[in-house]
Amino acid sequence: NLKEFQISCSPKEARQKLNLPLEGDLILFFGSLVPYKGPEVLIKALKLLEHKSAHVVFAGRGPMEMDLRQLSQELGVENQVIFAGFVPEELKKYYYRAADIFCLPSVTMAESFGIVNLEAMASSLPVVASRLGGLPEVVRNGENGLLVEPKVVGDLASKLSLLLENPTLRHKLGKNGRKIAENYNWDRVVDLIHKIYEEVL
What we know:
Elements lengths: L10 H8 L7 E5 L8 H10 L6 E5 L5 H10 L6 E5 L6 H7 L2 E4 L10 H8 L4 E4 L4 H4 L6 E4 L4 H13 L1 H15 L4 H15 L1
Parallel strand pairs: 1-2, 1-4, 2-3, 4-5, 5-6
Helix pairs in contact: 1-4, 2-7, 5-8
């Protein structure tokens, strides 16, 4: 539902509402903290970034949280990693609004699609995702986001750096993503399913 992600507040206002850092870029991860989504890859990539003012926000909870906290401490990036915990449905749009980049570094084929990518695109965010499963069907490399090789920390760090250094590119990818997300809105999907039923009948 595209309307759910259309809000009038500015990114700064969204950050204030969520008590997120007002300065620096925010890289958002939305989802359960489970192995197949690769959250540890994102923390390792954060360590390699030259942009020390950048933060990663993990919106979601899961069995990996304690291990991820420990990893961020071991790598010395604990001050750049924010664990937001469970996010109520009504606050999701504010996290997307507050962010500069959305990242889903999945590592296995268990990630078949990633609805959060569409939500990020509906919010005009550029997406960085793994080149596996159904993700490349939604995230089109160089058009609305950037694809990375699964588990390759250096590749993820390189693509994130590219976006952090290029606000114009971020805007372009985000704008294109919004257009692509419109193809997945409920009204259009319902019409397509209805046509298929008519053809079958």
